[in-house]
Amino acid sequence: MTNLALKNAHLLLESVLKSSTPSLAEVKEIQKSIGLSSSGSRLDNLLIRAYAHCGSLDGSRELFDGMRERTLFSWSIMVAAHAQRGHLEEASAIHEKMPAWNVVCWNAMLAPLADSGRLEFSARMFQAMPGRNAVSWTAAIAASARNGHLVWAMELFHKMPSTNEISWDSITRALALSGNLDDARLYFHRSPARMSFATWMAIFQACARSGELDHAKALFDQAIERNEDSWSAMLWGYATQGSLRDSVAVLEKMPVVGVVSCSSLVQCYTQNGYIPEAKALFDGLPARSEDTWTALAVGYARTGHLGEAGVLTDRMPRRNLVCMAAILQAHEGDLHAAKGIFAEMPEKNFTCWNTLLTSYANADLFECVERVFKKMPMHCEVPCTTMISVYGRHGHFRESLETYDSMPRKDVVAANAVLQAKVANGLLCEALEFYEKMPVRSIPTWTIMIRVYSQNGCTDLAKTIFDQACKDLVSWNVLMKLYGTTGYVLQAEVLFEKAPARNILSWTAMYSAYARCGHLLETKNLFDKMPSRDIYTWNTLASCYVLHGGLSEARSTFQKMPEHSRVTFNEMLAALLQDTGLDQIKSLFDALPEKCVVSWSLLISGYAQNAMSKEGFQLFRDMILEGILPDEVCMTSVLDLCSHTEDALRIFRYLEQDLGLRAVREHYLCLIDILGKSGWTKRAQDLIQSMGYSEAWASLLGSCKIHNDPSIGAKAAAELASFDPETSATYVLLSTIYFESNS
Questions:
Q1: Is residue 403 within 8 Å of 393, Cβ to Cβ?
Q2: I need a labelling partner for 422 at 20 to 30 A (CA). Which of 100, 357, 530, 732 fits?
Q3: Going from the N-terminus, what domains does the chain have, and what CATH number goes with each?
């Protein structure tokens, strides 16, 4: 191959490496034209880098494996390529196989390890490095700071033999972004070199967010050479704080009002709800660029002014991708509209694809979500996490795990989605194992585990996770609810008092704990202290009174309620059944705006308790005519109406054969009781023996006494004695039967 051809190949490969949208096909064509020397030459290494830059690690690996002689630089390229794309295990394996280690390879591993959440491993690797250079120190500081590990970043910064511009920049920006504004300003002013514009913007925006616009102004006047970007930043700061007059004053002082400034101000106005001001500014511009049109259209879309966004988009000289993507995002909750907009777009970027994926996921259309995911040109953390969650919700756990394993870079959000998928599919042991292996945990991680243990009644394990966790209000509420539902009221009280903040769910969890355990006084006291009440809290108070005998208080609560739900009316029906006549109950029942099977069952039960079978059967017929099918509880109430065997057997057959209801244990026990009390003791005995319901023998023994049947009574007594031979009541009842039969 001629020197000119080699030189052209070099230039083409370097062009690929500089491109933000590299073409894998172009790299393959270059390789095809030059072949591979397998000697570890610079051209071979460029090809390996180019394949990696295009995302084809397999191509890089194939070339690397085919090289007879590999230079240290070839090994370093492979380590860096795998590490930068999140394949840390492969990078570590290549690193271990290197004939000699150089500082370039060590440096290549530091930042990706920290960015993937393995900060401790990254720190150990940094400590083990035989020779650290300025790049090593800077990479460790920047990665730690970027991932929010400020303590470690600060420690490294102060130990660094000789700080440089990048290390000062990294630590200052991290302090600003984390809200440590005073420290950020201190480092900013102490820096021996001028900070980058990105760092200045981070400090400036931190000042603006905290309302310290005077400090931002001082920073602007003293530290930064004024250009359109810095002027635009001042505009942004005043606009985000609602200081429209100050932002206009800045605009008037600007030596040159350019596209960036106007677009920035239009965008700030729309984002903060100042739509008329944004429109007035837009209309007053002598000339508008594409960015200015886009700023107003995007602002309209993101603030919910979809009609105005559509009109403005139609007027635009040229619709661009940014604008259309913003409008598509604004329609994310409207699947039909989102599908239409997406279909009309001549080109789509990642945001567009991800918005459509999210729209289908929100609508829970599994097949559509999967189809869009497979068509997406690239899979990064966000769509992969969405797909993991959807797979988990629909029971496709294997696919959710495969999606997670295929991710080039796994973050804690994706890991939480896998954890939730395992939990949703009942794989609790696997969920715990996965949780233990997670390199990084977030507040949702702990909340998932606390909720899992809570739902399974594992109070001690839930408390252990809670004590280890970085807690948010959800975690406090979940554990508080667990204590309440399992009867640990004192522990719930302690959490309630210690919680750093409370919302309506916190109050409700504590309130429900008191109500469930029958602490009427504490329930009422907490109810009176609650900052706000909803229908659930009112219903809980009424229910607490009903369950624990406070019937007059229940009626008083019912009368004071600002609104009544179906649950409220049913609670009052249950209360009246215990305390008053059927006339009042029937009046309340007739007044119900909406009757459910519970409402009908309660009144039927009332008729059964008062031996009003005729009225009860008529009500049951009315219920069927209304189209309300009985449930298991209602079926028991209907059987309780039956005083004769013929009625019971007829109702039993009707419920099973005509309505298709499946009889359960309670229904058979009810039928056995009716058979026995009606004198059909032999049929009752046969039914007990065929169904195996041993608890029914006591009822049958009582029926034998009523009907003076010593033969069946002796059998029932013998069965009862076999279960509990120490109980004398069985023998006393049997002796009474014998005595009466011989009298």
A1: no
A2: 357
A3: 664-743 (1.25.40)
